[in-house]
Amino acid sequence: MFITKECDYAVRVVRALGGGEKLSVPEICRQENITVPFAYKILKKLQEAGIVKGHRGVQGGYTIKIPASELTLLKVYNAIDPNMFVIDCLNPEKQCERNGPNGGPCLVHKELAEIQQEFFALLERKSLAQILAGE
What we know:
Layout: H1 5-17, H2 25-32, H3 36-48, E1 52-55, E2 61-64, H4 73-80, H5 109-124, H6 128-132
Antiparallel strand pairs: 1-2
Helix pairs in contact: 1-2, 1-3, 1-4
């Protein structure tokens, strides 16, 4: 629900890699205060989403694949939690327990859907480069 710790840490990983240099997992973890197992889990998801690239071997590590100027918080969060909803009833794959007598959503559903749209729009309004530059 909302922004999980895993989503928060994913932004930290991207922030660490935002300078463009290749970093090892221990370097990322030291820089961003993340545990190694958690970092690997996050990096795997970011790699599957095409946000970071893994480099194997002795000189291995990770680099950012998408420039921070093209990344938004929403893109990073969706890589980690593609089913991020303000409330479960907004997930079209789940049946809301509070549906009205005609089977439609409860009266609060429409308002929550608008709030979710605004929330997502706010997460997309600035690139990570702008955020990290203090804009």
